[in-house]
Specification:
- The chain is an alpha/beta fold.
- The chain has 2 domains: 28-52 and 69-76 and 156-254, Rossmann fold; 87-153, no CATH class.
- Helix content is 43%, strand content 24%.
- The protein has 11 helices and 10 strands.
- It has helices at residues 40-47, 70-75, 92-96, 98-102, 107-120, 125-128, 138-150, 168-185, 196-202, 220-225, 230-253, and strands spanning 2-11, 14-24, 29-33, 55-60, 63-64, 77-81, 156-160, 188-193, 205-210, 213-218.
- The strands form 2 sheets. It has a 6-stranded mixed beta sheet with strand order 6-7-8-3-9-10, with helices on both faces. Strands 2-1-4-5 form a 4-stranded antiparallel beta sheet, with helices on one face.
Length: 254
């Protein structure tokens, strides 16, 4: 579904992404992980031309992304970020329906799609469709943002740390909602996070970026068995330590 060949990005004399080669099969959930400045968000944004690559080729569903105008390309790719980016002057339903309206969908079809997606992200349409954005909690805004990213029935979904600022309960609920939607809709997802625990829980494969290159890529089981380098191993030790501490605390309380 997604092919990257020698993709690079430079800002002036600074190289942020250097010669990325990547294949993402249809239906896969690929997680990009790395420290701040590793190039993961830049890589993600090049996939829908929010950032234009300096060199290389990106193809989605076999088509070079440069064959379409950038705004047309983005209408066919779902995108969600950590800050929900919702339009404050629109209610929930109009926010979710933005892209379908631009694509010329019939109003009845848009209304049905909005209600269906609100149900999928566990927000009652009768309560939320007309609600103002400022009246929503942070978790509710992220649910609406996810629904908006899926509104135009995209085959590809790009998510940039969408759950990072949420409390653990809301974060877990949205992770489970994402996995359910992914299965139902057959989505191909590229998901950016700096949280290796989240990457291990969500990803079919994990690509670890370091200094603008893919330092290691594999399934969660493959990375746990063989991190490949010290930096990847350091990221993996954090969720292991946390799990070990929780297990000890559970033992102490029993």
């Amino acid at each position: 579904m997604i092919e990257c060949r020698s993709v690079a990005k430079r800002f002036g004399e600074t190289t942020v992404v250097e010669s990325i080669d990547l294949d993402v099969p249809a239906g896969e959930l690929l997680v990009l992980v790395g420290a701040s400045g590793s190039g993961k968000t830049t890589t993600l944004k090049m996939l829908n031309r929010l950032i234009e690559p300096s060199e290389g080729e990106i193809r989605i569903a076999g088509r070079d992304i440069r064959d379409s105008e950038a705004h047309e390309l983005r209408r066919g790719i779902g995108y969600g970020a950590q800050r929900a980016g919702l339009f404050p002057h629109m209610d929930v339903a109009r926010n979710i329906g933005v892209t379908p309206r631009l694509l010329g969908w019939d109003p009845a079809r848009i209304a049905d799609r909005v209600d269906h997606l609100l149900e999928q992200v566990q927000l009652d349409p009768t309560i939320y469709r007309a609600r103002a954005i400022e009246a929503l909690s942070g978790g509710e805004q992220q649910r609406v943002s996810l629904a908006r990213a899926l509104a135009a029935e995209p085959a590809v979904l790009l998510l940039d740390e969408p759950f990072a600022a949420l409390d653990p309960v809301t974060r877990d609920a949205l992770q489970q909602a994402l996995l359910a939607l992914r299965t139902e809709l057959g989505l191909t997802i590229v998901f950016v996070t700096h949280d290796m625990g989240e990457a291990l829980l969500l990803g079919d494969r994990i690509a670890f970026l370091e200094a603008g290159r893919i330092a290691r890529i594999g399934t969660p089981a493959e990375l746990l068995a063989d991190p490949g380098n010290e930096r990847v191993d350091e990221f993996l030790r954090a969720p292991r330590r946390q799990a070990s501490r929780i297990e000890r605390l559970s033992g102490d309380s029993s």
